[in-house]
Design a protein that fits this description.
22% strand, 10-stranded mixed beta sheet, Enolase-like, domain 1, globular, TIM Barrel, alpha/beta
């Protein structure tokens, strides 16, 4: 079998609610979901997800190759862009291709990907994450109530702008999840909106009233020393890593002892996640994959010894996508469909109007006051 080409598609996710974080949010959000379909000379196809606009830069590394050599092909793709670098959109393209190749490898083996990767238990523990910065209280309770109904007893709330508001929202979510657990796990995600002292001050106010499991991305993703300061200054664990593209970007963070929970973004691919998990395991640290549509790292999570939980952002799927798992018991129960379990109905996504996650006031545009609020009253 040889890789012969690819198709780039786009579908939409209709969230049915506002989604965003401290940097901004999109009311009544409809967001694009990029799909990459890898074609072979035998007609079998593999599916990957995530932004991949630089795919032409890396596809030459896999064209004509046998997709079963996916790990070696991952490194071949990185070598393909050696001089110009693999960060950003290029790493996203590598990740989407990597997902598609793993899908093909498992389909050729006639096994679900979680089994092919060495998983024993098809259940992946999760935590609820509503991308909830734009929700009013009633909406917040409704969203996390739907997760609680599926057995979730842990949740991550967006915040970082106002400790009074953050405390109120965290307490609301705690009360909702307490229906299934008297001591639910609560996390706060600041999405890099603080500088170190601001983070310590803000979290300190919250910790006077409640127990936080972790605080996520408190400072800029590359600020290893800042992460260490925050970690030393608060009781909660520090989680970070979802926006790091390559193991070399984790090294300063780990050397500085600036992280307690190592994260990896789902859009960067399966091979990257497994390598990040191995690196974290070598430092006796847990790893947690950050969510994306259809939770594409769930299969790999079953085979790794240090996965603490996967982020689950929604209870339905984008238009034209189906995936072979059930959301129940506070996590994901993976099925037996060969491959990653992801199926694309191309007829269902044809003719969809264009939308964009990166609107001027959306979460993918950094707030102009991020990291500059230390002197503002709270």
């Amino acid at each position: 079998m040889k890789i012969t080409g690819y198709r780039s598609l786009t579908t939409h996710h209709r969230w049915g609610r506002s989604v965003g974080d401290a940097n901004g949010f999109i009311p009544d959000a409809v967001t694009e979901v990029p799909i990459l379909v890898v074609e072979t000379d035998e007609g079998l196809e593999g599916v990957g997800l995530g932004a991949h606009r630089d795919v032409d830069r890396v596809f030459a590394a896999v064209e004509g190759e046998d997709p079963r050599g996916v790990v070696a092909l991952y490194d071949r793709m990185l070598r393909q862009v050696f001089k110009t670098g693999h960060q950003g959109a290029t790493f996203g393209a590598v990740g989407a291709l990597d997902m598609a190749l793993w899908d093909l490898k498992a389909k050729l083996a006639g096994e679900p990907l979680w089994r092919l990767l060495g998983g024993r238990d098809r259940f992946v523990p999760g935590y609820a994450s509503g991308l909830d910065a734009g929700l009013v209280d009633d909406e917040l309770v409704e969203v996390y109530g739907s997760f609680a109904a599926r057995g979730f007893t842990a949740a991550k709330v967006k915040g970082g702008l106002d400790p009074v508001s953050d405390l109120s929202r965290l307490q609301l979510v705690r009360d909702v999840l307490s229906r299934g657990n008297v001591s639910p796990a609560l996390m706060l995600d600041a999405n890099e909106v603080w500088q170190p002292k601001e983070a310590i001050r803000h979290v300190g106010m919250l910790e006077e009233h409640l127990d936080l499991t972790w605080v996520e991305e408190p400072v800029r993703r590359w600020d290893a020393d800042g992460h260490r300061l925050v970690r030393q200054g608060i009781k909660a664990a520090v989680a970070t890593g979802e926006n790091l593209t390559g193991l070399e970007q984790y090294r300063p963070l780990l050397s500085a002892q600036g992280v307690d929970v190592v994260q990896a973004g789902s859009v960067w691919g399966i091979t990257h996640f497994m390598r990040v998990a191995a690196l974290a395991h070598a430092h006796d640290l847990p790893v947690s994959p950050v969510g994306y549509h259809t939770n594409p790292l769930a299969a790999a999570s079953t085979a790794l010894p240090n996965v603490i939980a996967i982020e689950v952002q929604n209870l339905d799927e984008p238009i034209g996508l189906s995936v072979d798992y059930t959301v129940a018991d506070g996590g994901l129960i993976l099925g037996d469909r060969p491959g990653s379990g992801l199926v694309v109905d191309e007829s269902a996504i044809g003719g969809l109007d264009g939308v964009s996650w990166s609107t001027a006031h959306g979460p993918h545009v950094r707030s102009d006051r991020a990291g500059l609020r230390l002197t503002q009253p709270t």
